[in-house]
Amino acid sequence: MLEELIVDIVGRDPVLLGLVGGIFIASLNLLGALLVLVWRNPTEKSLDTMLGFAAGVMLSASFTSLLLPGIEFASEATYRGVSVAGFELAGIVPVLIGFFLGVAVLDQGERWVHQVGPIISNRLADDIQTDGGTATADTQTSDSQNANTDSVASARLTSLLLFTVAITLHNMPEGLAVGVGFGSGNIGNAVSLMLAIGIQNIPEGFAVSVAAINAGLGRRWYAAVAGIRAGLVEIPLALFGAWAVVVAAPILPYAMGFAAGGMLYVIGDEIIPETHSHGYERVATLGFLVGAAVMLTLDVVLG
To answer: Fewer CB in a 10 Å sphere around the end CB: N or C, the chain?
Structure first.
């Protein structure tokens, strides 16, 4: 069994197991991000389809991996929630608090990204033209065409930044959950959770890389790095969760709700409008439904 193999190699130290779990799920995120390197000539239609798929995965994961587990975790008899005026915050309450905090933070984050996006777009303009599939301007291109191209590139980069932030927020409680799982001492359940989160990290990492390509960024650098960077946060949080499980456990439902709120905000506000703005709404919707079904199937099979 995988559990026995991990114990034979790593031992039963919960902190070390948490570190290994974090590295494992981050590595699968890396694998998903690097898949973009073999996708040489993506079309607008295929990009919208894949982004729709990614949105479906994220939508399903928000419920199956974050909201519902968070409610279940906070409903356990052993859970000790924060008490406010003699009322213990447990069950769905901490998840809802985290959920609306996530929505509020992403709403404010969107405004910030829209402010800094054009600045970053200008700084990355040369790289976008070099390897992002965007045609470089020749001497015949008019000033108005250049301005329009810059505007489109800036808008797409803004969407990418917000999407990357949301994926990173989504990965944070996942890393924490893996660490808490190993810190609890139930290695069997922790390994199952690690595998489930790791497998879903493959489409997550790929989703960020696809979003980077869709924004016009370089395939060999920004696209892959954007996907990798979003998953690296899982390693320290997995380590923290195993090391400080007593501290991490009570805040886990809040973190899960927070990440789910941020993910659902971005899906509805950014990804779906983006995939439905190029004339490929049907395939984008089909990709969305397939992604939701795939993530649901993974959760049932591995859960």
So the answer is: N
